[in-house]
Amino acid sequence: MAAPAAATKEPVVSPVRSGPDYFLGLTVAACIATIFVLGWIFWEIFQEAFPALKELGAGFLTGANWQPNRDRYGVLPFLVGTVATSLIALLIALPPGLAIAIFLSEDFLPLPARQLVRFVVELLAAIPSVVYGLWGIFVVIPLIQQLGAWCAERFPDVPPLAGPAYGNSLLTASVVLALMILPTITAISRSSLVAVPRTLREGSYALGATRWEAIFGVILPTAAPGIVAATILALGRAMGETMAVAMLIGNSPRLSWSIFAPSGTLASLLANQFGEAEGMQVSALMYAALVLVALTLAVNFAGEAVLRYTEKKTAGIR
Amino acid sequence: MPRPMRIITFLVAAALTAGGSARAQQLSGAGATFPAPLYQRWSVEYNKQVPSIKVNYQSVGSGAGVKNFLQGVVDFGASDAAMTDAEIAKAPRGAVLIPATAGSVVLAYNLPDIKNLRLSRAALVGIFLGKITKWNDPALVACNPGTPLPPTPINVAFRSDGSGTTFVFTQHLAAISPEFDEQVGADKSVVFPVGIGGKGNEGVTALVKQAPGTIGYVEFGYAEQNGLSCAAVENKSGQFVAPTPESGAAALASVELPENLRAWPVDPAAPEAYPITTFTWLLLCKKYDDAAKLKALKDFVTYGLTEGQSFATQLGYIPLPESVVAKANAALGKVE
């Protein structure tokens, strides 16, 4: 609302342009190039994956055996690992991430202090993933191992918690992933919370709402589309994360019910095996890459649908 | 500086640089990560002796090394798994395999109080097939008389990435156990029925170091540098042999290299031989078009086969036996 007002005040230098609009040309070219490169990547992956696609078909997705030396390729354990790690990571990261965002967008603390906290949280996003991996090896693994042993002793009959407990496990990777996606959730949720119009906050206070009633009844629902977008982006990041996961998850191609058992993800499978792969294995890995791309795409589409739905639902408030 | 002087200085400098760049020879290689520290050491040391030759070796992995070599994007390749006949047939300018150094794959374990673990063949296969799950299993007690083995579970650590180390290790296990051969098989990446995977030698080393009760296979050099305990392994003649440069050399001496210089001491019979040992190869073309490059490459490889061998022990590799060096030199002579 402020921007158009400022624009009209600007002095008009020349109302008529002369010559072609180079800037427009540049932006159009950049836009087309992006689409072209994306298409090219797709085409390349598809072409490389084609022999495996033809040979293995849908059995690739449901097979639980990944034995390159026997030419048996089933990607199910990695598919399950990818979905499980990113969902658990999201489950761990969403509540605190959202809480931090609310805390930073309200005036609980003076502005300089909030800026500092915000800066620190966003700094988490700047840490290279290999550093997260190392930190996970030295800090998270010993903790998870103890937790796993404790759980295995108390809940031997609950499959997800039963032993044997390993340090390099699905849960270890999820915990570190949670930390990695926290800044994404916080930063985007915070900016959408800040963008809630002042009039709405003041209106709800004027009607006698307490601060918490205002937050949960008015501010959060209004910012819901932004929070959904933050969640989707975070989920996408968790699914694609490679290095830290490969260092922590134990890289096992066996299916297991336990969150304390070693597992694998599509991205870590690619990182591990691509260098030395040959023949059909290359093709199968490309097929796995295709599955990962499709999965990420599906998440984005689902996110888009949820986003539209929440926008429609909350349109009345805005 | 007066003007004519300046021009002369410039010309002299230009002539010197031009002369230098004309003589400088760049060689590029890519392949196995296992011998990379040694090749890189050769490159540095050789460059000190012959400054005009620069060798750039990238450790991208054996498989990628063979791929790059076949595509002709590097002057030489390197591989722990040599090259298969099918691959050699695909090489546009032919391929010559030159054994360049050798190494052992050791079983590193983390049992704080036990320094001299011994593994019989049955115990070794049993652990990696997931049949032996406790350190005080009868099979382990039988080959470690008098050693107080703990009743704790065995954690197995393996290489999650495709690697020549896995190839050599599984090749040995498949050779000594038909059951392992059938269930797992030998290759650069296989699926063990138990354990957790670490990426690279450093990944497995970290797994072993971190959790007591873990056992994993790594290259000898890595285990030594990181101070890991290594098990003595039972060989074909029933002796328990610890991995040392000498026991590795004994294993190498037991193989007779064929015409193409490709052979593995899969299960050496000599009583003093460490059973899991391998050569690693440089891959050269049969013909090089550029005479200057050919000479530089031959000089460098000759250096590696002679003087370069002295760095092997220091870096955790096994120097090649005399007979192998002679054969390698003869093969090098055929490159033109």
What is the typical, i.e. mean, pLDDT of chain A? Answer: 88
Percent strand of chain A: under 5%
The low-confidence runs of chain B, each spanning 5 or more residues with pLDDT under 50, are: 15-22
**Main beta-sheet annotation of chain B:** 9 strands, mixed
Instruction: List the secondary-structure elements of chain B in sequence, H or E.
Output: HEHEHEHEEHHEHHEHEHEEEHEHH
The total strand number of chain B stands at 12
Share in β-strands of chain B: 15-25%
Multimeric status of the protein: heterodimer
What's the β-strand tally of chain A?
2
H and E order of chain A? HHHEEHHHHHHHHH
Q: What helical percentage do the residues of chain A reach?
A: over 70%
Going across the biggest sheet of chain A, name each strand in turn.
1-2
Radius of gyration of chain A: 24 Å
Largest interface: A-B, 32 and 31 residues
Overall form of chain A = globular
Calculate the mean pLDDT score of chain B and round it: 87
Structural class of chain A: mainly alpha
Report the end-to-end length of chain B measured between terminal Cα atoms: 51 Å
Continuous helix count of chain A: 12
